[in-house]
Design a protein that fits this description.
The complex is a heterodimer. Chain A is mainly α. Chain A has 5 helices and no strands. The mean pLDDT of chain A is about 90. The longest helix of chain B is centred in the first third of the chain and has 27 residues. The chains are: A mainly alpha, B mainly alpha.
């Protein structure tokens, strides 16, 4: 429990830093050069850390199913959708909607246990919790701050 | 309308990505999953970059080197994300990730670090974060 919470806090903090950095790259080099660089470096870092912790075992891919090779394309879909969404709606609304949909699908996923994940049974309490979080997102995003500096979430 | 649809799908893909990484990690290991998904994503993005012929990539050398290294954080992000989902489920993981992310960005904005224009912390952002934390408490207890 504590480990899960701490790792989620770490992931969120690093995502914040990564988005700020990526935005700086994006301003100059455009979204595809940025995405290519970000995923390339992420690959090299994972490979390095994996080799340190697992050595040659890193290359032993247990039950590799064919679709695993294509799952990296989801990240490309994320970039396309967010870039288009922000272009058409402006960052504030686009990000508020994206965060809301992220949470909505999370709740759906926990409840249905798709892709063989452990099911977290749906309860009314969970729905209320998610709705309160979503209301927080909208107050945060739409509550009077200038549009231009909104950090965009790219990956 | 079309913009909302894109944003909605973008959010759905982010969740799908976390869930897919978690599933793949279970079968082949977390570092293996992080390595493979980022490699295939990188190859695809590179193909698109060549296809769209966006010459702006040449301006990568105008970016401060520190900012170019953000991608490397992806390794730790995927590892933490997958392990969190395994331990506490998708909804709670993503809720906490969003709170940490918005709070830190908000804090960095208010300090004006990394050359961002300094922004005053305002009441709505505090209320928003408060509501988000309250939501997590409801989720959990």
């Amino acid at each position: 429990m504590i480990l899960g919470l701490s790792l989620a806090l770490i992931a969120g903090s690093l995502l914040s830093l990564q988005n700020i950095f990526n935005n700086k790259v994006n301003e100059r080099a455009g979204s595809w050069a940025t995405t290519t660089l970000v995923l390339g470096l992420g690959f090299l870092a994972s490979l390095t850390i994996g080799l340190i912790f697992e050595g040659k075992h890193l290359f032993i891919l247990g039950k590799m199913e064919p679709w695993y090779w294509f799952s990296g394309l989801i990240g490309v879909g994320v970039v396309v959708c967010l870039v288009q969404g922000m272009k058409l709606l402006g960052p504030t609304y686009a990000i508020a909607i994206a965060l809301t949909s992220q949470l909505g699908f999370a709740l759906l996923w926990d409840s249905l246990g798709w892709l063989g994940l452990d099911k977290v049974p749906f309860s009314f309490k969970q729905l209320i919790g998610v709705l309160v979080i979503v209301s927080g997102i909208f107050v945060f995003k739409l509550g009077g701050r200038s549009e231009s500096q909104e950090p965009a979430k790219m990956t | 309308m079309r913009g909302s649809l894109f944003a909605f799908l973008g959010g759905a893909f982010i969740t799908l990505q976390g869930v897919a990484n978690t599933r793949i990690s279970r079968d082949i290991g977390t570092w293996q999953a992080a390595t493979i998904t980022q490699l295939t994503g990188f190859i695809m993005a590179l193909i698109i970059l060549m296809f769209v012929r966006d010459r702006k990539w040449k301006r990568l050398n105008q970016v401060k080197p520190l900012y170019l290294t953000g991608g490397a954080l992806g390794a730790v992000i995927i590892f933490s994300n997958v392990t969190a989902i395994q331990r506490i489920g998708v909804t709670l993981s993503i809720s906490i990730i969003l709170i940490a992310q918005l709070s830190l960005t908000f804090f960095i904005d208010s300090k004006g670090w990394f050359g961002l224009v300094k922004q005053k912390m305002k009441l709505p952002q505090f209320i928003g974060l408060g509501l988000m934390i309250a939501g997590v408490v409801i989720l959990r207890f």
